[in-house]
Design a protein that fits this description.
With 358 residues, this protein is an alpha/beta fold. 39% of the residues lie in helices and 31% in strands. Strands 4-3-2-6-7-8-9-10 form an eight-stranded mixed sheet, with helices on both faces. It has a four-stranded mixed sheet with strand order 11-12-13-14.
């Protein structure tokens, strides 16, 4: 019995010591849930979205009362050091949910390369952290805490988790943009956030191609890009006659071949379609509606691909990264010349959806 009492006492002492160390470490560290990066004349403005950890010791939700902090500096490491010098805290990124970068900063190729060179060298951020763009100010997005449950970082994480229409988590990550920085052979779409009545919402998408800012496209155009890249589980489409159909069990097949001086990419989309809303005018048979759907969706996809290859100059099929498995001849021809590949590109969509109800 005496031995048990001694062991119990040692356990209590150990827990007390560990608890004290844990509290001390929390006091010495800052745990941002989101980071905003804006550009200014001297370099950048770094903004942080913190939980109030003083509330966690009182048994309250630590995300219930956000704490924000902004610093200006010439580069990221200077901004981080300025934060640590001004607060006596070390930044700890283990709870970081999202990074929001202003569109202006993304347009500055030199600043973006300098930022990613430092992030990769220092290995301070996990590569799976979600990446967003801000239409105007990233700092403003991080202030939208009143209607986001106290933390923009947590809110954006939940936004990503509820995107059930995607076959995979398709919000951009730091790692994907970092990979493009090295490989420069792929189209990336970064969701652009705006203030929508006090909460951040996706307004459009930034297109990054060969690690260069190309421009912005609408949400509808981005969804078509995701569709033809085989990334969507579901897709809503409205016919000219008013019917709204939900496309499910989607599959994309791709064929790439050389035709003279052109590279022809043929995308075939298949799946099932269900009517979600009837049209307002003439009624059509199942066969008529199916033909209308296949023809109109193919025309719409072809039109979007043609417009976007001209301006902002992107291939929504993201076909270049598939060359190695689709055409070894074209892969060898264009392996180091992504620009010439896009200039030779001709895209054709074919659609064969099966309407499963009337």
């Amino acid at each position: 019995m005496r031995m048990r009492g001694i062991l119990a006492g040692l356990v209590l002492v150990f827990c007390a010591v560990c608890s004290g160390c844990g509290t001390h470490e929390l006091e010495d560290r800052g745990f941002p849930l989101a980071i905003g990066i804006d550009q200014n004349e001297d370099g950048m403005v770094l903004s942080f979205d913190f939980p109030d950890l003083t509330e966690s010791s009182e048994g309250k939700n630590p995300a219930g009362k956000p704490v924000s902090f902004s610093v200006e500096a010439g580069a990221y490491y200077e901004a981080q050091k300025a934060y640590e010098n001004n607060t006596n805290k070390i930044l700890d990124y283990n709870h970081l949910k999202a990074i929001v970068i202003s569109q202006e900063f993304l347009e500055d190729d030199e600043a973006l390369r300098e930022l990613f060179a430092w992030l990769e060298r220092e290995e301070v951020l996990a590569r799976n952290i979600c990446l967003f763009a801000a239409k105007d100010s990233a700092a403003e997005i991080l202030t939208l805490t009143e209607d986001t449950g106290g933390s923009v970082g947590k809110y954006l994480e939940q936004m990503v988790e509820t995107q059930e229409d995607f076959k995979e988590n398709k919000v951009m990550t730091i790692g994907e943009l970092m990979n493009q920085w090295h490989n420069q052979n792929e189209l990336l779409l970064i969701p652009v956030l705006k203030n929508n009545g006090g909460v951040p919402s996706v307004a459009e998408y930034v297109t990054m191609d060969a690690f260069s800012f190309c421009g912005v496209i609408s949400v509808e155009e981005a969804m078509k890009a995701f569709l033809c890249q085989n990334l969507l589980r579901k897709f809503l489409y409205r016919l000219e006659s008013g019917e709204v159909l939900q496309l499910e069990r989607l599959h994309r097949s791709m064929d790439i071949k050389e035709e003279g001086e052109q590279t022809l990419v043929t995308i075939t989309l298949t799946g099932d379609a269900q009517i979600k809303k009837a049209g307002n005018g003439k009624e059509f048979t199942r066969g008529q509606l199916q033909k209308k759907l296949n023809r109109q969706l193919a025309d719409s996809m072809n039109q979007t691909a043609e417009i976007l290859i001209e301006d902002p100059g992107v291939d929504i099929t993201n076909s270049f990264i598939c060359l190695g498995s689709r055409s070894r001849r074209l892969y060898k021809k264009y392996n180091q010349d992504y620009g010439s590949y896009k200039n030779s590109l001709s895209i054709n969509f074919q659609v064969d959806m099966n309407l499963i109800n009337e």
